[in-house]
Amino acid sequence: MHLLTYPSILLTLGVAVSNVSGAAIHQHHVHRRALTCYEDNTLRALERFSKDAAVFCPKFLTTPTERIPSNFVGVPVSKLSSACTCFQKTAAPANPVTTPATSTTSAPVVAPTPTTTSSVKASPQSIPIPSTPTSAAGPTGISTSGKAYGGGKRGLVYDYNSKDFSKFFQNSRKIAFGSNWGLKRSPAPGVTFDQGPFVPTIRVDGGLNNNDWIEGVRALIGSGTPMIFASNEPDNRGQSNLTPSQAATVYKKYIQPFKGQAALASPAVTNGGGATGLGFLENFVGQCSDCHFDIINVHHYVNRQDVSVDQGVSAVKSFLTKDVAAFKAKHAQFRNARICLGEFWLWGASDDDGAAYLRQLLPWLDGNNDVACYQAFGGLWEGNFINNAGTGLSKSGQVYYDL
User: Fold this and answer.
1) Closest CA to 182 of 146, 145, 208, 212
2) When you count CB atoms within 10 A of the terminal residue's CB, does the N or C end of the chain come out lower?
3) Measured between alpha carbons, how far is 301 from 271 in angstroms, rounded to an integer?
4) Closest by CA position to 351, among listed 398, 288, 300
5) What is the pLDDT of residues 58-69, one digit of tens each?
6) In sequence order, what are the residues at sequence separation of 6 or more whose Cβ sits closer than 8 angstroms to the Cβ of residue 356?
C-alpha cells in the first residue's frame, strides 16, 4: 500500500478476509483519491503521518504561513498545497469493509534456526524454484526460466523520503532485494538501496502509459533484477486505482513482454473482500487469460486494535494457506506461481508489538517454500524500522535485520 507506519498511520484496507473464527466485527475504510493524486509523492509523506496531516492541511490551505510539523520537514514547501488538496480528497472514508476478527488458534509451525548476523554480507546463493511449489522447509529465492536468484526472500521497502537509512541494513545477511513503488533505484538525491537487487513497480499515467518503463526495466534486468512488480493495489482507490480491465491492459503492455527474463508478479491486491482483494484478481484474470504469472502478489494488513499479536500472525498464515492457496488452485495460470507477500503489517502496533509480530511470522515465511518473497511495512522511515530519532534501527527493525 505504501503508506503505513505503526503508531500514527492511516491509509489501510480491510482486515483479513481469511476463513478464521472470531466474533468481533470492525468497520475498515478504504480511502479514495484520483490517479493524479496517487502520482504525487508528497502526498505519500503526508499519509504516512495522517493524523498530523489531518490537523495541518486544513490550516495550511487557508494560511500558507502555518508552521510545518517536524514530520514533514523534508517535504518541499512548493508541493504542500497540491498534496494537502489531494489529502483532503483522500480523508473522507467510503465504502466501509466489514470483516471478522481473527482467531488465536494456529497450527504449530516448525521454524528454521535463525542465522547469526555476520559483519560481512554473504553473496546470494543461486537456488532455482521447483517446478511445483511444495511446503518443504528451507528458504528459496526468486527465479524464472533460465534465470535463478537466491539469497533469501526478504525485501526492504523505501521511498524518496528514506534519506540514507539503508546504511543501517548494510551488513544484514537477510535482505535479498528492495523496492520503492517505482522504476528508479534512487528515487531522490541521497536515497538509494545497496543491499541487493532492486525490483521495479509499474506506475502509469491517466492514459495508462509509462514511457520510461521498457528501457528502464531492460537496464535493471541487465544489472540483475530478478522480478518485476505489476500495478500496486489497483483494487484500492487510494493507490493505483485501476479497473480489472485497465490493470490487464497495463500488464499486457508493460509486464508480459519480460516473460522469461525475470519473474513476473501479478498486480498486488489487498486483503479486502468483495470486489477488492482476490475478488479483484478474479476479475483481472478474466481480462488477462493469455497472461503469464510467476508470482501472485498479495498484501495483508490487520489492525492491532482489533486483534492480538498472535491473532495477527494467524490471520496472515490463514490468508496465504487458505484464501490465496484456493485462488491458485482454481486458476491454471497461477497453479505453479509462488506467493509474494508484497506488503504486510500489524497496523497501529507499537514497536514492541511489531517486533513480537515479526519474531513469530518471519521464520514461518522463510520456511514455507510456497512463499517466494515478502516485504514487511516496516520500512526505511523514522518510526518504522528506523527509530524515531533516525539514528539506528528500531526494535522491529532489528528483528527484520537479523532474525
Assistant:
1) 212
2) C
3) 7
4) 398
5) 888 888 888 888
6) 309
**pLDDT tens profile 311-330:** 999 999 999 999 999 999 99
Cell 511444495 belongs to residue = 134
Rounded to whole angstroms, the Cα distance separating 260 from 254 reads 14
pLDDT at 208: 95
Rounded to 5 degrees, φ, ψ at 23 are: -100, -30
Q: What percent of the chain has pLDDT over 70?
A: 70
What's the N-to-C CA distance of the chain in angstroms?
24
Q: What are phi and psi of 6, to 5 degrees?
A: -65, -60
In this predicted model, what pLDDT tens digit does every residue of 91-148 receive, in sequence order? 533 333 333 333 333 332 222 222 322 222 222 322 233 233 333 333 456 654 333 3
**Total count of residues recorded for the chain:** 403
Region of 223 (left: φ > 0; alpha: ψ -120 to 50; beta: rest) is: alpha
- Side chain identity, residue 99: T
Residue 100 CA, distance from chain mean position: 22
Q: How far apart are CA 31 and CA 89, in angstroms?
A: 9
Q: Is the link from the previous residue into 224 a cis peptide, with omega within 30 of 0?
A: no
Q: What is the DSSP letter of 319?
A: I
Q: How far apart are CA 251 and CA 230, in angstroms?
A: 7
**21-to-254, 282, 318 alpha-carbon distances in Å:** 40, 24, 11
Q: Which amino acid is at 81?
A: S
Q: Are 280 and 299 in contact (CB under 8 A)?
A: no
Q: Tell me: pLDDT of 347 over 70.
A: yes
Nearest in space to 281 (alpha carbons), one of 303, 260, 312, 251:
251
Q: For the chain, how big is the Rg over CA atoms in Å?
A: 20
DSSP lists the bridge partners of residue 144 as 147
Q: For 348-377, give one letter per residue: b (16+ CB within 10 A) or e.
A: bbebebbbbbbbbbbbbbbbbbbbbbbbbb
Beta strand residue intervals within 75-230, DSSP E: 93-100, 143-144, 147-148, 154-157, 175-179, 227-228
Contact between 169 and 195 (Cβ < 8 Å): yes
